[in-house]
Amino acid sequence: MEIHHISPQWLTIDRVAEILDHGMHLALSEESCQLITSCREYLDRKAAEESEPIYGVTTGFGSLCNISIEADQLATLQKNLVMSHSCNIGERVPREVVKLMLLNKIQSLSYGHSGVQLITVQRLVDFFNADILPLVFTHGSLGASGDLSPLANLSLPLLGLGEVEMHGEVIPASEMLKKMGWEPIQFQSKEGLALLNGTQFMSAYATWAVIEARRLSRWADKIGALSLDAFDGRIEPFLAQIQKVRPHPGQKSTASAIRDYLQGSELIARHKQHVQDPYSFRCIPQVHGAAKDTIEFVAEVIETEINSVTDNPTIFPEDDLIISAGNFHGEPIAIPMDSLAIALSELANISERRTFKLISGVRGLPSFLVANPGLNSGFMIPQYTAASIVSQNKGLCWPASCDSIPSSQGQEDHVSMGANAATKLYRVVENTRRVLAIEIFNAAQALHFRRPLRSSEVLEQMVEEFRQRVPFIENDTVMYPYINEAIDFLACEPV
Description:
Blueprint lengths: L2 E4 L6 H9 L3 E4 L1 H20 L24 H12 L3 E4 L2 H15 L8 H12 L3 E2 L2 E3 L8 H8 L7 E4 L2 E4 H8 L10 H6 L3 H31 L9 H5 L4 H14 L3 H4 L9 H4 L1 H23 L7 E3 L4 E3 L7 H28 L21 H17 L21 H31 L8 H11 L12 H10 L6
Helix pairs in contact: 1-9, 3-6, 4-5, 4-9, 9-11, 9-14, 9-15, 9-17, 11-14, 14-15, 15-16, 15-17, 16-17, 17-19
């Protein structure tokens, strides 16, 4: 089994993708173990010596921060915090996002600024490695004082509370502990707060979205190239000279990819009767490119976030400081997540327009891409489905980060709503995949009507692989299973 060692070394999103794709296990490095242990020892000494209250350690939480807690009640305080904050409801968070929540929380706690016990972090590692996934739900976080409610649900099983998915079955956490031969963790001071304060609900969604957005961006280029060829489009808008005089990185990258995909195509090389293509084809470099640039900006921000300490208070043993501050606030990633949703929505928007053109009965293609339209409706309604989805995306792209509702009796008077940005973003990603799937469904069908001319070798190979899942549609048939197959086809990496 390949092992990824948790350490202070910078964790890239590409590495996260590898951990997930290869089913790697986690292990705490010696350096991380030492940092965690040293911080815990410092906090114990400080709590014993300090006469002044320490927020969340010897006091209540939020607007209850002025209430002091007796020394013999500090452990109870932390357990009560996790139980009382587990108000997480709604749809279940997808399992791949929960895995990322565990990974991101482990990484954040490993720097030795949170004051947790080593056994607590190790148990989270054990959950990840055994594929034991706490049940976490979509509603409950304001994205500011940490993702309190979803992280409470993530933490409950440490105490033997809540529920987990184990071997594909949902069971009580207490039963899971018995099966694994584990004892519940006995929280020490600050541990509950360290687990609940943090942006790991938001950052997990964001990490997943960046990984998928990069994949969908590559698919959008490849599918767009196929649609361009099937539509008898022109190559000139993709030439390097055009990109040189407007040298946005994403635009240049997209145009280069399209040129590569169409290299050797008989269709793209033949004489054209038309002078220009519609914007949805001609402006692929500009639109896809802008999406690429946004994806990479967001990736940089999210990568910084998953390498950060985001709980409160933050402990600096080497400086003899315990600082109550605001690293839990989700604003730094809420705004980028809203931006990423807009970028992906535009990939879907322009994709649906290309689909619309392919079924329009122009440039020698039959109406609705069937040989006998009238008797057959052909590909009329897949475009409706795509149009419905892109319309929904527009609503989902309303920025969550521009909203704020005060909480905790006004102590937490500005919140990011980053959690809402995160869950909306997830839906936009999935919607974009569906729209691109409908486009390849249509583009592969359209290519058939260009025979005997052929597209490039790489695009013909893609269509051949697609045809192993989705056949050419001769006459009307039940369409939705084929659309679902097309969606599944895009779950893999484009070759």
